[in-house]
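Q: What does the assembled structure look like for these inputs?
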Amino acid sequence: MKLHRISAMFLRHIYLYRHSLTRLVEIFYWPLLDLLVWGFVSLYITKLSAEKQSTPNFLGIFLGALILWDILFRSQQGISVSFLEEVWARNFLNLFVSPLTIGEYLASLMMVAVFKVVAVFLISSLLAWLIYSFNLFIIGIYLLPFMLCLVILGWSIGILTTGLILRFGQQAEVLAWGVAFLFQPISAVFYPVSVLPKFLQKVALVIPASYVFEGMRAIIFNQAFPAGHLVKAFGLDLVYLSLALLFFFRMFKQVRARGLLAKMGE
Amino acid sequence: MTAALPLLEVKNLSKSFNSFQAVKSASFELYPGEILGLLGPNGAGKTTIIHMLLGLTSPTAGEIRIFGLDPSKPRQREKILRRMNFSSTYVAMPYSLTLRESLMVFARLYGVKKARARIDHLVEQFELKDVVDRPVRTLSSGQMTRLNLAKAFINEPEILLLDEPTASLDPDIADRTRTYLLEMKRTKKMAILYTSHNMQEMEEISDRLLFLHHGEIIARGTPQDLVARFRGEDLEDVFLKVAREVRP
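A:
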């Protein structure tokens, strides 16, 4: 064992952080998100115990939330990771010198996202039923519009992330795994929005996913379909998708002007 | 050569990246059945020109017309790219797909009819038959280059842009590739824009050459013209003179 060789390899990794803000941020990002999500879950459970309410169907809440959250995450991954696969394979240039238009390319990625979502949803639901006797379909037919809301939000986050990777290159790759989780604490996936601090409750008002998860809980608890939640979620989804597309096309124009598109493909 | 209309016309094309001028007012044409070589030291602007022609990089100034169409307009770009193709040593294909699957994806992207027959022909032509059902990740660099070339011919392009296409090929395969390119040029009237650092290859294959240095076309003509103008022994000698700042 030679100290100079160990220190050389240590330096090799430390140098990375000097040149990449995203890597530096990533060190703190995941622990912070975990702290927020599990902190709010704990607050929710503590609040329920203090109010001496009857124990809600935690299995339904957590498993249902987890499966629905995965829809959003897989939808986003279907866009950004599929894009990254072309970059990793150095196939990017071949695609963009073909007649393929950017709109067609995005449409194909959206289809990939839907394919992944359907596959993951079917397998997760089946496993939840087999292992935990939890039937997600108790939500009924309303499950479909809620799922669609999450898919559209996933597309929007995926397109936004892909635009950022296009602009900032492979050092921004980490965003493909991280950005969706930024929405998790404020989307009130595992707890109601009311558990969040007041300022985050206001932020949750503009997050489509918060209406989906609140809606899911309303159906499980009260057997009532919150149509208003669904309308708000779809409305916000359309705004998010439009903004994400605008951002992506703007980034695409910028990277062409800067010659970065060609660099990314080689 | 000039009796036919050019398939590609470039007028006063320039590209700047901040204060660095990568291409300075380049003008040239490419005619059917012609191989035009882009020659120059690293960083001379060859690849930037190719990327601008493909619409990967937007020009700062100047005009490009391909088949009489403007590639900066999305609908026209799509029409152009259907009739054009590109290959570079520096790009690859999806690693997990087999060669046949990769080529099938591109056949669909280019709207190739009778795709299977076309793929079979190209696989035969580029001697990839033995590996056609193997994943791309298992290919050697030479096989990958040949796969890229097969992809470049998938739509029987009228214009082909090749960025150092023979860089990782052994002399035998490189020679066969040049022979195939010359055959396509002769029989299909294919127009080819070609970059290479292999001067012997450039001399052998090019009808005309453009010599780029610091983003500027400093000389143009047939390989023989350039050798005579720079008073070199051969094209390699000319290249060394240009790279070392000697002007005709």
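The CA atoms of residues 93 and 136 of chain B lie 7 Å apart.
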